[in-house]
Write a structure and sequence with these properties.
Shape of chain B: globular
Number of strands of chain B: 4
Strand content of chain A: 15-25%
Largest interface: A-B, 32 and 22 residues
Oligomer: heterodimer
Helix content of chain A: 25-40%
CATH topology of the largest domain in chain B: MetI-like fold
CATH architecture of the largest domain in chain B: Orthogonal Bundle
Structural class of chain B: mainly alpha
Bound molecules: adenosine-5'-diphosphate, magnesium ion
Strand content of chain B: under 5%
Number of strands of chain A: 11
Structural class of chain A: alpha/beta
Order of helices and strands of chain A: EEEHEEHEHHHHHEHEHEEHHHEH
Largest sheet of chain B: 2 strands, antiparallel
Distance between the termini of chain B: 10 Å
Number of helices of chain A: 13
Distance between the termini of chain A: 37 Å
Strand order of the largest sheet of chain A: 6-7-8-3-9-10-11
Strand order of the largest sheet of chain B: 1-2
CATH class of the largest domain in chain B: Mainly Alpha
Helix content of chain B: over 70%
Radius of gyration of chain B: 24 Å
Number of domains of chain B: 2
Chain lengths: 340, 325
Amino acid sequence: MTTPFLSVRDLTVDFHTEDGVVHAVDGLSFDVEKGTTLGIVGESGSGKSVTNLAILGLHNPAHSRITGEITLDGDELVRAPKSQLERLRGNKVAMIFQDPLTSLSPYHSVGRQIGETFRKHTGASRKEARDRAVEMLRRVGIPHAQTRVDDYPHQFSGGMRQRVMIAMALVCDPDLLIADEPTTALDVTVQAQIIDLLKDLQQQFGTAIILITHDLGVVAGAAHEVLVMYAGRAVERGTVREVLGSPRHPYTWGLLSSMPRLHAPVDVPLVPVRGTPPSLINVPPGCPFHPRCDFQALAGPDMCRGERPELSPHRGHGDACYLTPAQKQDIFIEQIKEHL
Amino acid sequence: MYRFLIRRILGAVVILLIISAVTFFLFFAIPRDPARLACGKLCTPESLEIVRHNMGIDEPVFLQYWHWLTAIFTGRDFTYGHCDAPCLGYSFVNQEPIFNAIVDRFPTTLSLTIGAAVVFLFFGVGAGMVAAARQGRALDKIASSASLLGASMQIYFVGVLATWILVDQTQILQRPTYHDFTANPVAWASGLLLPWLVLSIIFTANYTRMTRSSMVEQLSEDYVRTARAKGMSTRTVFLRFAWRGSMGPIVTIFGVDLGVLLGGAIITEQTFSLHGIGELSIKAVENQDLPMLLGVVLVSATAIVLFNIVVDAVYAFIDPRVRLN
Ligand SMILES: Nc1ncnc2c1ncn2[C@@H]1O[C@H](COP(=O)(O)OP(=O)(O)O)[C@@H](O)[C@H]1O
Ligand SMILES: [Mg+2]
């Protein structure tokens, strides 16, 4: 078995706040292979962003404690020195964020923002960096790149801004691109364009992508593997076919049921996941999802609130739930699937 | 940009006209009769009438304002003497044209302001940036407590204390006096050093706090996170990104402060017996010298309006979102 390109093992991220310790990520493991896309889904607050900021070492060490292992192409990152992380960021691993308007500097032209990343990591001259910026703007499909390179972010539309963000992220040909809800702030039609762009670029350059979203539709169309997160933990993992086709975890069922569907009759109500996300300061004992779970009684008395269920097995389709495989299959087919 | 400036300058002229008119009519509403004061104890109705005429206040108020306004461009003759354009009126108390009095005093106020501004900008912004860079650590705490202390000081208290210690007791600094800069720059600087420092204490404290909070706010912005996420060094993130974003609010307040200071640092000038615009306005109030008061009000207003325009221009330079609208 070869080692995966990115491997995260037992990642734990705690924040020390005035209200107490926030357990934002708690024992999370996953892998990403070169040239593939891992979709990470979960309600907001489930620790998706925190996980990915941890990969780049972007949490303030004064307020956070990170344990576990993150290995990228053989390099351990959790304990890596700052200088190593700075060389990595924007170069080997790049990140794009949800809101391209606030995530780009309003004070610098897009050409400068793209170019400075290139210069930082390649030592290119100003002229070369500018040429590269134009080339990148072209690559992400911005018309009149030659003139628009001197424009400022506010002069672009939302979708074009996200393209600029992608151009900036890809300027050093990263091996891993982390896209944190890249389409959430955009119109539906623009969303599809951005996702297509990411897929095209992946095919051309073989970039591994982590695509964070709370939209299972996006995952279905763009990812190879899926990781479902709840309260800082992975509750289900597998290929898109496995997780969306035969989901096993009650939380995944809930997410699927709460998804708006194009072909459903209008009078079928959307069923959001019942209840509210748990506090990450006092995480419910056992399975953190049990207070919101309709099936906990089936697992046996006090199973769900006792010990925490582990995600198993380590590879392939896995889920963290005490229901038996037969129960999961029956419930999904009999009670969930017909409503999807 | 030029159109923007021209529009703003025209706007400023209108504002100054309004301010002068309002001030003018307000003074007119005051029941005190300046002629009566000038006329003295043994005033007969006849002599009062003459004084009124000489002062130009026997005419209807609109006509008076009109004369006052046109005199700025054409000059004006008073019985007491001629007042060259730009004539802002004639002080019957000081027996001199208002404009001359202001021109005499202005270099003192300007020197006081510029020197203090250099000191408080440098130390205030510097300390604020250091505090923001060392958030929550010892240097931050020292800077924050020092600025809290500084901001709660009063100029007349610090001024008197500093004069007593640095001048009277130890003779480290000179007793404040104003020397002409062009004649002797060293004397100019050493004569104003103490007022600069004292005036700067409070401003430095404010600028430290403002810079720190502005920087801290910028450091938590998304675009700063992006800068870090693309591998920019801590230093670059701090200077090229966060500082750039912090400049706007600082420039805005700085413009207002400069305008206010140029209108006369009244308390500072009083504390150190400097003869600037501030002292001029205090005297004008004491003597009920209405033409003079009108003059200094107008000078202060002009300084503030002018710096507002400068701030807007600088702001447009800093922030492209403003520039391109
Ligand atoms: N710097 C921080 N300090 C304290 N709590 C944080 C911090 N960053 C994130 N959190 C908390 O961690 C949890 C997970 O956040 P996040 O990863 O942003 O969720 P999402 O899955 O929506 O991306 C949230 O409850 C959030 O409040
Ligand atoms: Mg998030």
